[in-house]
Amino acid sequence: MKRKLEEMNAEEEKQVQRCKARLDHLGLVSVPEEQRAESLLIQWSEARVDRVIIDYMFRQGYYESAISLSREAGAMEFADADVFLRARRVIEDLRQKSCREALEWCSENKSRLRKIKSTLEFALRTQEFIELVRKEKFIEAIAYARKHFSSAAKDEQSLRLMQQAMATLAFRKDTQCSPYKELFDENSWQRLEEQFRLDNYLLHGMPPHPLIYITLQAGLSALKTQLCYIEEKKATECPVCDASFGQLAQALPFSQHFKSCIICSITGQQMDEHEHAPLVLPNGFVYSKKALEDMARQHSGQIVCPRTGAICSSAELKKAFIL
Question: What is the pLDDT of residue 109?
Fold first, then answer.
């Protein structure tokens, strides 16, 4: 008991230090702006970027790189390395088509998994039963079911799944009959891995998606407009118009702009009343002054509309006024 209490005390002390470091990190931005040094804000921003990158590396399986960056950036308190490294053993074991590590993890967190109503342990037991049936070890499969399935069916859904699993005893592994075909499917291991990841994140209060996705979506939501997905309206340097970032922004709502914001489709820069002043071509299309001046220099004073190919001179341009 003394040894266990010492271990619990050490674990609690580590968690307290981790929480304190995170609260201190958040405290940097709670200081009033007039009292906040610019260097502190830069330091806070860099720490946040490091934290987002470390989280992404861990989730993608680059464990050594993530730990190396955590130590170099002094961000071990923000990394949750122990959570990801414990999960690593489970994931690697599942990829070897073994449920041993995953079941051990379920046993370690049994009460907490019960609170979030996780069905992971039942899914793992079902998979082990299916593997015995796949190998035609029917007597062992029946004994396994009697030992582990008797208390597993706690609701109507789990009872139905248990009945389907038991029915596989009457089918071969190459059956084309649904839903038994899906139970014998090798992709079920991939589904178990995904279910474990989600339960692990939920258990530790972590979002199911990488922080870098959430951070990028927060920024993209402030930029996205109804013109973002119209091919001819795309801007060259707009992150929402970029193919990869645009996929992250698809499910986001359009931002509400109280002031007009026009982007030149040639330069990708926001138009203003100075160097990037908006100018209207005779055909009605609007581009920035800088883009049209550069085009005129390259075409001996002529301006060619990139959308329609219409040609005009600088004298035919009219200045536009944005409200």
Answer: 92
